[in-house]
Amino acid sequence: MKTYFIGIDISKDTLDVCILNDSDEKELAFKVSNTVEGIEEMIALACCSGNDSSHRYCFENTGNYGLLLASLLEERQLLYYQVPALEIKLSQGIQRGKNDKVDAWRIARYAKMHEQELIPSALSEEVLFTIKNFLTYRNFLIKVRTQFKNEKKAFYQVSKIADVSYEMEEIIQQIKALDDKIASVEEKITKIKGVGFLTAAYMLVLTDNFNKFQNPRKFNCYAGLAPFEHTSGSSIKGKTQTSKLRNRRIKTVLFSGANSAIIHDQELKAYYKRKKDQGKAHNSIINAVCCKLIYRIFAVVKREEPFVNLTRYNLHMS
Fold this sequence. Notes:
Layout: E1 4-10, E2 14-21, E3 26-33, H1 36-47, E4 55-60, H2 67-75, E5 80-83, H3 85-91, H4 100-113, H5 126-158, H6 165-190, H7 198-206, H8 216-223, E6 228-232, E7 236-241, H9 248-264, H10 266-277, H11 282-303, H12 310-317
Parallel strand pairs: 1-4, 4-5
Antiparallel strand pairs: 1-2, 2-3, 6-7
Helix pairs in contact: 5-6, 5-7, 7-9, 8-11, 9-10, 9-11, 10-11
């Protein structure tokens, strides 16, 4: 039985589709709307190339634009791979030209070439979608608040030569309102099934409730925390460095948590001081502290028990 690889290039309103067979021959290429009707039409056209069990749907992780497609494929129990766009791009090497039809073909070919390595995707639990949307909304509010804060600074300079008291008062009220909204969103996050707060919320979403990463080392690579050697023969001996292809958001959150941990956690505070005394740079130590925090989080999830700070316990016992 032939296997068919269906590459889908997703945009807000349309889906460009390319169907390849396992001999790398193009069976069909077409465009449908990114709606229930359009996706059903795509599935019906794909059925002309073989039965459902022989189909391998593949598309880039485009956030909300791909949710309807993933949902309908799951509803019909069709196998699909949702892959990071950068992963597909890097696998193709140097490419000439770009359009939606070509992209759909490239995605289908990627699925064919990497079928043995790809893991079938599945939508996250409803609670993770809820957390993810809260985090997205919180980030949006923070960006808007930052814009108002920057405007406040600009108007402060203007106030030295002109009366801008009305504008200043309006901006201050907007910032206060945004502070209240951000606090409200953060409160809602903490109430979702006992989620601790920002770091825990991001960890739940990015690991898909710890289903996407089997161990902390892989997650550290994904977050850009794991340093890699940078040498070649005897002539190039650079410093170890983390990957630039990292998730910047989670790394920022983890760095913030690590900076707080070296103040309040006695074990990590002692670790930071020891490394600092050895001449290590602040960011290098904080990066290592982030790794330690990730190992703690994964250990807690694996054991299904709360974290016990043995250092603090020993201090109380002595």
